[in-house]
Write a structure and sequence with these properties.
The structure holds two protein chains of two kinds. Chain A is mainly α. Chain A has a single domain, classed as Leucine-rich Repeat Variant. Chain A has twelve helices and no strands. By secondary structure, chain B is α+β, with helices and mostly antiparallel strands. Helices cover about 45% and strands about 10% of the residues of chain B. The termini of chain B are far apart. The chains are: A mainly alpha, B alpha+beta.
Chain lengths: ~180, ~350
């Protein structure tokens, strides 16, 4: 059964790489992202370089692909090996960029992924000033899911001085990361 | 698409039922037609929104049906939620996320009093604390499933004490990091279960993350417990660190993991083991349980080749029986051949030989 699973995942990755159909790409990526929820698959996903695939998809124009890719990363980034891999592959930057997406699921997944990727070594990236400032704005959102997660981010992953600094910054500048449309 | 902003109780995009995907390649078609959707921990929730409930006053039956999958903490109708004519919308709050997950899987698209239910998660009803707990549980689950104890937990763990103590039990690294005799042990980490979670904000994170690099911990919990059972020499290696609390705590932890190795030893090995221990009883009684562990270190003993006594008469029972039978037949044949000498000696014998 283990061999069957690897082969199946391999077939998905292969289809993703060879297909021209955007629908098929979306379906396969969603499939892989859902597989990324189960730790049993992590070894196979690493072997098949699916983590790189997810990271690459974050910069696609197709919003659906971005949404599924960041969802996949959110699902698997709590595992220590996966976390280290994503951090070493400089994955934090494209994930932060997802905070600007108009897609609600993308933004929500990005916030959680940043939380999960926060370690003593990576916190200077994941809780950088622009990010904290963004979270401040999100915490005031009418979207309860977003405001809850942003509040958690500020309370549990940022120090009070960081939050204070971001608060002062947002008072003086109008530049900010926009809230998702839906 | 429905608006996502606004208070909980308004229709959100993630409540909408997407159409099933029709164009899936055959090899990846599931048993049921499904929409193209990704589920993350953000989307999942203990709160379930049930749409399409017929307005027949069947709330009690609805709750009873869902309660089959787990305890329900709260439930009520959502009168403001837009609903199709003659249907109502209900909100259910399960005690456990995995119960909600199963209930959703089983009850979505299920017929209920003649109407098809649409069940979806409703995470927008969570409080900040509930979301926090949900993410923490996910963290613990991954740590346990991948056998990694990440000491870097949240700075503030608010909420009831029971939650805190559960968190600390799982997030404390000393259960998995004993293979490295580090001099950086912080005894304060072991003073109390509450102490662990509160002290391990950043300091422990630095200290203990370096301890989690042993390749032994890539496997699942069962294999790890086997590892512990086979290598209790780890126990003395950590003691030079000077912390008695870890050793005593480790003794406590050793007991369940040792019983783990028993499960994976074949029964015949157990029997052989016990027999050997009985034969060498004096030596074991002097050395105590550590000797037992030492014996186990060598590895499960394969059952010895059963020694057969070749002189035992019972081995020849079948052969003797057959010989006697042949003798009997031969005697009876010779008697017949004496009576009928003209029919020849060979042929009657051939005739009377029966194939068994």
């Amino acid at each position: 059964m283990e061999l069957g699973r690897l082969e199946y995942l391999q077939a998905l990755v292969t289809e993703f790489q060879v297909t021209d159909s955007p629908e098929a790409k979306e379906q396969v990526l969603a499939n892989l992202a859902n597989f990324a929820y189960d730790p049993k698959n992590y070894e196979y996903l690493r072997q098949l370089q699916v983590l790189d695939l997810f990271l690459d998809m974050l910069t696609e124009d197709n919003e659906t692909l971005v949404e599924f890719a960041i969802g996949g990363l959110c699902n698997l980034c709590l595992d220590k090996t996966n976390k280290e891999y994503i951090l070493e592959a400089r994955g934090v930057e494209p994930i932060i960029n997802c905070l600007s997406s108009p897609n609600e699921e993308t933004v929500v997944s990005a916030v959680t992924t940043l939380m999960f990727l926060t370690t003593p070594q990576s916190r200077h990236q994941t809780t950088a000033l622009p990010v904290v400032e963004c979270m401040l704005r999100f915490s005031l959102s009418a979207n309860r899911r977003l405001s809850n997660l942003a509040t958690l981010f500020l309370e549990d992953y940022c120090s009070p001085p960081q939050v204070e600094e971001a608060r002062n910054l947002s008072k003086h500048t109008a530049v900010g990361i926009p809230l998702p449309k839906d | 698409m429905a608006a996502g902003g606004g208070d909980p109780g308004a229709p959100y995009r993630h409540h909408a039922q997407l159409g099933a995907c029709e164009s899936r390649a055959k090899y990846r078609e599931g048993r049921r037609p499904r929409a193209v959707k990704v589920y993350t921990i953000n989307l999942e929730s203990r709160y379930l929104l049930i749409q399409g409930v017929p307005a027949l006053g069947v709330m009690k039956e609805l709750v009873e049906q869902f309660a089959l999958y787990g305890a329900i903490e709260e439930y009520h109708a959502l009168d403001e939620y837009p609903a199709e004519q003659f249907t109502e919308v209900y909100l259910l709050k399960f005690q456990k996320l995995h119960c909600a997950r199963v209930a959703k899987k089983k009850m979505d698209e299920r017929s209920f009093f003649g109407s098809l239910l649409h069940v979806c998660y409703a995470p927008e009803f969570e409080t900040v604390q509930e979301t926090r707990e949900k993410l923490q549980d996910r963290r613990k689950y991954i740590a346990k499933a991948t056998n990694q104890r990440d000491c870097f937990v949240l700075k503030k763990v608010e909420g009831p004490k029971t939650t805190v103590s559960k968190t600390s039990e799982h997030d404390c690294p000393w259960s998995t990091s004993r293979s490295h005799a580090s001099s950086n042990w912080d005894p304060s980490c072991f003073t109390s279960s509450h102490g662990v979670s509160h002290n391990t904000g950043h300091q422990c994170g630095n200290r203990n993350q370096s301890l989690l690099t042993s390749p032994h911990y890539d496997n699942n919990c069962a294999e790890t417990s086997a590892y512990f059972g086979q290598n209790p020499s780890l126990t003395p290696s950590v003691q030079p660190g000077g912390c008695t609390p870890p050793a005593s705590l480790m003794q406590q932890r050793m007991v369940p993991t040792y019983s783990g190795i028993d499960r994976f030893m074949p029964r015949t090995t157990h029997l052989q083991e016990r027999k050997r221990k009985r034969e060498e009883g004096n030596r074991f009684s002097l050395l105590g349980t550590s000797a037992d562990n030492t014996e186990v270190i060598i590895g499960p003993q394969l059952p010895g080749i059963p020694k057969v006594d070749m002189d035992d008469e019972s081995l020849n029972t079948s052969a003797t029986l057959i010989r006697n039978k042949l003798k009997e037949v031969a005697d009876s044949v010779s008697t017949i051949s004496v009576e009928k000498p003209e029919s020849g000696s060979a042929k009657p014998l051939v005739k009377q030989r029966r194939r068994i």
